[in-house]
Q: What sequence folds into this?
């Protein structure tokens, strides 16, 4: 009797939700004894972990190659920061709508459709590479090969053709192509955000609905642990792909003479998007075979499941898990959303602890967003490291320590059974130590080396300061960029022509060839001078710098779980889901969207020499290193200080609430204690424990 009631109740619902062709005519007993792999919640957890890993890898990959995209398409840091933040636009616009109405749809299939859209967006990001002309790292010659070195020399015969070539490359179609390329990348980033909307919330609710109550936290922990490796893999993938030349699919016949240390080097940024998009596409396939609803995962848990279902039946009148997914309390569920939302929203936003915690998380997220987007570029400029090495440092050092910090914070909250006040103390200590560790970063760097003919004050026009008189007979092109370095004087020249060099010498080696320029009138002794920019005098500081950054990230990540618990323990029980949704939305709107643009604009203000493309300002060639370090680290310091101030106010409010609670307890007035539920003090020891 028992098995006959149990099987049709749920299993037939699962079959009707997914398999329309059999019509539910199959015998339920074999399906109950030998269930399909797609009716296993464990398999869903595995698939969803891989999908979120691939999704975060493709969404974080652009940050690992941001400086390469700038050089390839002539973008400023402000524009590239806006591009990196644009995937949050589509995500933020739809997350609330999808989160509320998502319980009425087939969640696994919608997750699969979102993953397919993410795949399309990843492929669309590579389109600019294929529709653009091959990368020309020297604009003085139509060909990329040794002729560009000849054109960069101090030869009077180059006086006539250089302006003509420069003007011919600035046709109307070139500008249209540039706008099309930028528009395609912004569209792809928007689609990337839209496609990612259903993946995480639908997956979490699906696991929570059909996993056993005691197993759901374990499955979600596994999901988050695997997912957090996505950004690290994105930087690792960027480090590998940027070692390859951008036009690896259409290499010139004679090859190239650039190395990855050359400032003109552009890596194969587009190849990583193809690899990550392929991974997302493969991870999306199983979702089209999962049922809309599935029974609980194990037979021995079914009796307990039915007992729970009977006990919950007065609350859940619809589909399994609908109340939990929608996030409304039983008294608010029948109310139409337009009337419920404003009242609950105002009640949540008027909570002081909630507002301060969200503000502190906004400050932390702003710091993380700016660091994740522009830290690779900062390392390239400040310490003269390659883009691939900078990405490997972040992916192998900073992100693993940040993940470790999140885990340690969760363990401390669980093992020590921290209440709201002690969670506030832990958050305050984490923000304080993060601020202390970031202070030495202001002094870990060195000033820019001298660049002939360039004023090191940002904002000055490059043409206002005359180039040295030793190269006046050379008629050097103004838009050429082929730097050479005089190592004895530590002076860098824009091109061999600006150094007065008239000849070129190539030293062949088994691994790579080294290019030198000789007979340089501006160099003491006439040279030879090697091709490429001068090495930074403080490149040895890159590892200590990254260790401090990584330790600061780890300490800041310790505050993640306790600050989250402050929200969950501070608001009313029926408002928790909405409070978390508001928290994530405010973080996106106030931190993840504007922070990359703010950091990019600050970096642009430190530029001392802009490349010109068809009369418009393109990529920045040289920065004032002292200003770059002070403004980039200063922004980070500002956001960390804001987070510390918010946590200090939270702790002060919690202490005041504890004093008021003690005073009211001595008065033995239960009516007054009932009002403290809204303000969120430490009501019961069990309520404060995780």
A:
């Amino acid at each position: 009797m028992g098995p006959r009631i149990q099987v049709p109740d749920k299993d037939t619902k699962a079959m009707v939700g997914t398999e329309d062709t059999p019509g539910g005519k199959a015998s339920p007993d074999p399906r109950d004894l030998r269930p399909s792999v797609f009716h296993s919640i464990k398999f869903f957890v595995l698939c969803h972990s891989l999908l979120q890993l691939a999704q975060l890898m493709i969404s974080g990959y652009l940050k690992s190659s941001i400086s390469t995209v700038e050089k390839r398409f002539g973008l400023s840091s402000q524009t590239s920061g806006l591009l990196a933040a644009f995937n949050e636009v589509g995500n933020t616009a739809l997350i609330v709508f999808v989160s509320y109405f998502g319980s009425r749809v087939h969640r696994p299939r919608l997750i699969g459709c979102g993953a397919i859209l993410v795949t399309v967006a990843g492929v669309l990001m590579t389109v600019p590479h294929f529709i653009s002309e091959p990368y020309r790292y020297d604009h003085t010659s139509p060909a990329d090969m040794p002729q560009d070195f000849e054109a960069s020399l101090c030869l009077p015969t180059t006086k006539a053709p250089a302006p003509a070539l420069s003007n011919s490359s600035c046709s109307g179609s070139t500008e249209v192509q540039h706008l099309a390329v930028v528009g395609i990348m912004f569209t792809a980033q928007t689609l990337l955000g839209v496609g990612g909307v259903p993946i995480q919330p639908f997956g979490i609710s699906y696991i929570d609905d059909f996993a056993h109550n005691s197993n759901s936290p374990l499955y979600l922990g596994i999901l988050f642990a695997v997912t957090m490796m996505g950004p690290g893999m994105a930087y690792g993938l960027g480090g590998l792909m940027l070692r390859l030349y951008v036009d690896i699919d259409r290499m010139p016949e004679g090859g190239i003479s650039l190395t990855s240390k050359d400032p003109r080097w552009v890596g194969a940024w587009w190849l990583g998007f193809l690899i990550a998009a392929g991974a997302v596409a493969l991870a999306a396939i199983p979702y089209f075979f999962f049922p809309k609803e599935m029974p609980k995962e194990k037979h021995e848990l079914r009796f307990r499941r039915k007992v729970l279902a009977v006990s919950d039946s007065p609350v859940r009148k619809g589909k399994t898990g609908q109340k939990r997914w929608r996030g409304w309390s039983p008294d608010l569920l029948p109310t139409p959303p337009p009337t419920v939302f404003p009242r609950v929203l105002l009640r949540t936003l008027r909570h002081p602890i909630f507002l301060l915690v969200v503000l502190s998380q906004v400050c932390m997220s702003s710091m993380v967003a700016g660091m994740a987007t522009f830290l690779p570029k900062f390392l390239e400029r400040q310490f003269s490291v390659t883009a691939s090495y900078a990405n490997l440092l972040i992916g192998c050092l900073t992100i693993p320590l940040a993940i470790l910090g999140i885990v340690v914070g969760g363990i401390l909250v669980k093992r020590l059974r921290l209440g709201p006040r002690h969670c506030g103390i832990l958050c305050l200590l984490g923000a304080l130590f993060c601020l202390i560790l970031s202070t030495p970063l202001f002094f870990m760097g060195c000033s820019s080396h001298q660049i002939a003919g360039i004023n090191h004050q940002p904002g000055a026009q490059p043409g206002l300061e005359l180039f040295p008189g030793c190269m006046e007979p050379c008629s050097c092109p103004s838009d050429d960029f082929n730097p050479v370095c005089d190592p004895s004087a530590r002076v860098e020249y824009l091109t061999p022509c600006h150094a007065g060099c008239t000849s070129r010498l190539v030293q062949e080696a088994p691994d790579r060839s080294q290019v030198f320029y000789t007979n340089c009138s501006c160099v003491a002794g006439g040279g030879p001078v090697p091709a490429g920019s001068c090495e930074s005098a403080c490149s040895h500081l890159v590892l200590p710098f990254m260790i401090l950054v990584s330790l600061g990230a780890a300490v800041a990540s310790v505050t993640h779980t306790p600050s989250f618990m402050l929200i969950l323990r501070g608001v009313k029980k029926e408002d928790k889901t909405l409070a978390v949704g508001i928290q994530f939305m405010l973080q996106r709107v106030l931190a993840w969207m504007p922070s990359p643009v703010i950091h990019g604009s600050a970096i642009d203000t430190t530029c001392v020499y802009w490349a010109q493309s068809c009369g418009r300002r393109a990529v920045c060639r040289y920065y004032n290193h002292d200003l770059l370090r002070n403004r980039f680290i200063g922004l980070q310091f500002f956001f960390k200080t804001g987070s510390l101030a918010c946590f200090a106010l939270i702790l002060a409010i919690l202490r005041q609430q504890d004093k008021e609670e003690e005073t009211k307890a001595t008065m033995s007035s239960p009516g007054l204690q009932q009002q403290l539920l809204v303000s969120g003090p430490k009501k019961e020891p069990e309520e404060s424990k995780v």
Observations:
- The radius of gyration is 30 Å.
- The chain is about 60% helix and 5% strand.
